[in-house]
Amino acid sequence: MNILRILNRSYDLFDRDVVSNQTELEAEIQSSSFLILGGGGSIGRELSKQIFQRNPKRLFVVDLSENSLVELVRDIRSSIGYIDGDFKTFALDIGSLEFEALVIENGSFDYIMNLTALKHVRSEKDKYTLMRMLQNNIAFTQKTIDLALKVGAKKYFSVSTDKAANPVNLMGGSKRVMENLLTYRGQDIKISSARFANVAFSDGSLLQGFKNRVEKKQPIVAPNDVQRYFITPEESGKLCMLSTVFGKQNEVYFPKISKQFGLTKFNDIAVRFLAELGLKPLLCSSEDEARNIMKSCDISKYWPCYFTISNTTGEKPYEEFHTHSEVPNYKIYSGIGVLNLKQSNESSNALSFLEDLEELRSRTHWSKNDLINLITAYVPELDYNDLDKNLDQRM
After folding, report:
1. CA–CA separation, 157 vs 244, rounded Å?
2. 353, burial (CB in 10 Å: exposed 0-12, middle 13-18, buried 19+)
3. Taking the CB of residue 28, how many other CB atoms lie within 10 A of it?
4. Average pLDDT of 366-375?
5. Average pLDDT rounded to a whole number, residues 95-111
6. What angle do CA 132, 162, 3 make, to 5 degrees?
7. Cα(171)–Cα(125) distance, rounded to whole angstroms?
8. Does the pLDDT value for residue 123 go beyond 90?
9. Rounded to an integer, what distance in angstroms lies between the CA atom of residue 193 and that of residue 159?
10. Is the pLDDT of residue 370 over 90?
11. Beta partners for 251?
12. How does residue 393 score in pLDDT terms, banded at 50, 70 and 90?
């Protein structure tokens, strides 16, 4: 499957930037030790491979999913092989005492890179997963920064999202608070970040859903009124690597928009995905029709598709990488824009957010509105509108 062709692109966005900085990049990685958190996820796997192939002195990868780490090791051994340095994986929760012991007992890491995140709008549908999202995306960021300081790390990286710019969902709001926290903690340790576009065919993504639906002989459903930026999994690893190694204090890297890299509708991606398989979409007018036609149509030529408007909570019609008040620098890299987030009242308030969050959590009972009110109090630009319908209520 040619992902670039499905994205209607002919080149890797960050190849030129990696090649032009290759000498310095390899020298720094070969002389450094890395701890990657969330390294079993789609972005974390690609980042781990980018670091591994440049022969680091030490690479430890942590993820909650044991199976994801097994596949990461198999992938690395099968595609790259071995390095002179120390490479190990650990199936641990970064909120656990075991994880803290691992970091403290294994000496200094030069770079600690946090790729853990609850990234789906689906995760804000109830008060339990929403609380876990806030814990993971914000509280655990604070904890891992403290650990980075304790072991003398020289740099901390944490991944953000384009949804943090003018957020309309609670996930984006959580990442905005996380960015404020990063900016504030930048006075203690060197920190950089990256705002992502959608990573094509990443775990749990709608595009991966297209692939799964075809494998399971099920119809494809996609919104026809939602536009997103898409990057490849390999590009996601390169963006994180470049921001980690070269990002200056409080800098946020993001993909630079160009003629070939622009907003794309999900239904257009679906059509190109089917074309890659030699199939044409068979347009349906409802979920029921799509399911029924699936049983009788010639799936060697056609595939039932239901393209419809988006009417679920938290879906932004289009994405953007920065707000109007943030001034990007496009002169440093060929394919990357850079923002420098400044200290502000919002950044210093991030610690107060964590205190209020912990007070709520300590009650062992809270409502979804409690959490919504907490986020909106600290992210006043959040334009959240609960439509009382989430993605789990759609096919």
Report:
1. 6
2. buried
3. 17
4. 94
5. 94
6. 105
7. 10
8. no
9. 5
10. yes
11. 192, 340
12. low
Other beta carbons within 10 angstroms of residue 279's beta carbon come to: 18
Q: Which two tokens stand for residue 15?
A: 């190849």
- Beta carbons within 10 angstroms of residue 122's beta carbon: 17
Q: In 230-340, where does DSSP find H-type helix?
A: 233-246, 266-276, 287-294
| Cβ atoms of residues 54 and 28 within 8 Å | no
Exposed/middle/buried for residue 221 (C-beta within 10 Å: 0-12, 13-18, 19+): buried
Q: Which of 376, 255, 364 is nearest to 320 (CA)?
A: 255
Task: Tell me the average pLDDT across 290-312.
Answer: 90
Q: Answer for the pair 3, 201: CB distance below 8 angstroms, yes or no.
A: yes
Q: pLDDT tens across 8-45, in order?
A: 999 999 999 999 999 999 999 999 999 999 999 999 99
Half-sphere exposure of 278 toward its Cβ, with a 13 Å CA cutoff?
4
Query: How far is residue 153's CA from residue 296's CA, in Å, rounded to a whole number?
Result: 60
Q: Using the 8-state DSSP alphabet, how is residue 204 labeled?
A: T
Measured distance CA(243)–CA(252) in Å, rounded: 7
* Chain segment 333-344, per-residue pLDDT in tens: 999 999 998 877
- pLDDT band at residue 48 using 50, 70 and 90 as cut-offs: very high
What's the average model confidence in pLDDT over 220-230? 92
The answer to whether 204 and 348 have CB atoms below 8 angstroms apart is: no
**Torsions phi, psi of 117, nearest 5?**
-170, 145
> For residue 147, what are the contacts with CB-CB under 8 A and spacing of at least 6?
100, 103, 104, 112
Cβ atoms of 4 and 232 closer than 8 Å = yes
**Model pLDDT for residues 145-185, shown as the tens digit of each residue:** 999 999 999 999 999 988 888 898 999 999 999 999 999 99
Dihedral through CA 101, CA 107, CA 111, CA 116, nearest 10? Answer: -10
Tokens 């294994």 correspond to 106
Contact 5, 272 (CB under 8 A): yes
Q: What is the pLDDT of residue 122?
A: 74
Helical pair 66-79 and 42-52, crossing angle rounded to 10 deg:
40
373-386: b (≥16 Cβ within 10 Å) or e:
ebbeebbeebebee
Question: At which residue do the structure tokens 């590009």 appear?
Answer: 235
